[in-house]
Amino acid sequence: MVRAMSEEYANDLQNLVNLFGVDVEVEHRQEDDGFGVSDEFSIKADNFEETFSQSYNLDEKDPLKRKSVKKHRAKRALYDKLSKRFGITLPWGCLTGVRPTKLARELVENGQVKEFLVPEVLEKDYCVSRDKAKLVSMILKNQKCIIRNDKLVDLYINIPVCPTRCLYCSFISSEIGAVKGQIDNYLECLVRELEAVKQVIKDKTYMVRTIYIGGGTPSVLSADQLDFLLSALNFPVDEFTVECGRPDTITEDKLAVLKKHRVTRISVNPQTFCEATLKRIGRPHKNAQVLKAYQMALEKGFVVNMDIIAGLPGEKFGIFKRTIATLLDLYPENITVHTLSVKNGALLKNSGTVLSEKDIAKMVDYAEKTLIERGYKPYYLYRQKNQLGGLENVGYFRDDHVCIFNIDSMEETASVIACGAGAMSKRVFNMENRIEREANPKFLADYIARIDEIIAKKKDFFA
Ligand SMILES: C[S@@+](CC[C@H](N)C(=O)[O-])C[C@H]1O[C@@H](n2cnc3c(N)ncnc32)[C@H](O)[C@@H]1O
Ligand code: SF4
Description:
Blueprint: E1 2-4, H1 10-20, E2 25-32, E3 36-45, E4 48-57, H2 63-86, H3 100-109, H4 118-126, H5 130-141, E5 152-159, E6 161-162, E7 174-175, H6 176-179, H7 183-203, E8 207-215, H8 223-230, E9 239-245, H9 252-260, E10 265-268, H10 275-280, H11 287-300, E11 303-310, H12 317-330, E12 334-339, H13 357-373, E13 377-382, E14 393-397, H14 404-411, E15 415-419, E16 424-429, E17 434-439, H15 444-449, H16 451-462
Parallel strand pairs: 1-2, 5-8, 5-15, 6-7, 8-9, 9-10, 10-11, 11-12
Antiparallel strand pairs: 2-3, 3-4, 12-14, 13-14, 16-17
């Protein structure tokens, strides 16, 4: 447990301590007289107790930047101490946030670091491992499609409904059986929100660069419901994604509707090709359904993304290796390799895994090496809380099939107009280096009941 006596870094320090996976109590006190800063730590574990401190001069006057430096210095000091005390190094060093690549890009964009020096700086200043630092550097090179322009926006639509709930998932999403009666009503409200958004886009001369329908599982909707929703989305974009996901929801007639409305990409997510694991994680689809859905998607000419998760309960390296081999036989344009995160909101409270940090790292490293050998390139990365081994999720593409929406949303380089229950809009002010966020209500019933208020707020937010 971390107690921060004078600063609001308790969460960051706590997250760092959690990543070490050790039982330790930390107290932190910080003083800042406007010129110099001093940190005092006291750490207590079963077999030792120690206090230590650091002080340094700090010229930075901007309060936000000053706070960010102080936080980094405190985290770094604690990392060094715990690392030495417990003999543990972490793959991402003292970095605890969701987006290591965003940090690296900002260092380059602000002129603080030359792009070719990114790996060195991550290693030296943040104690990131050499392999992860190189991965970040590769990813930055593959994100050249980023355009910093406040008029260019992405449009996101959320369908927080799934056929059933997978044990590991903590996304807010209802099982279709529980909300069936609300779906038509929900879609009508969603289309109303989209009509309002269209007017804002026109008035403010925004340009929609990509559309992404995510969830949940949007393909849980019927072909008619998809047709109704997609009819409201007549923007001329080159990238239009529908995150289908669960292979057991993908049918020929639904794909025909997506094609009719010029959707360009879909996902067909195996998560693993081990059927015993699928059963264990409450994801009742079969490999044959993945293959069939993929075949239909290929015939219709969609770019396909496939998600897998490393570290699923009961899986060891051999099973994971077979999943990678099958994936590479199929050779989809995009593959996203997730590392299992055991989150509070999930039905799976304990992964039941016997994997050590070394085992999970072996899987994730193997995926990276094998995919890269086969011609895939990493292009976006993010971390979540409680990921096994303190690891990450990485998206790979082959040829020129990056998903611009994935990059924009992870790197926060473009505004996102997000509609539907649980959707989070983001307004990026590039010149001011500032981001504002606005969330819609999370649950369908709330969203439906408050649609007028939601539309008014959305107009205000993007005005
Ligand atoms: C928002 S989910 C939606 C995808 C779709 N509903 C499906 O299940 O195929 C996106 C991806 O996040 C990943 N994911 C979800 N929960 C996770 C967890 N606890 N740990 C690691 N990855 C997770 C899965 O790979 C999933 O495909
Ligand atoms: S993993 Fe996908 S299908 Fe499973 S509960 Fe989460 S969002 Fe729904």
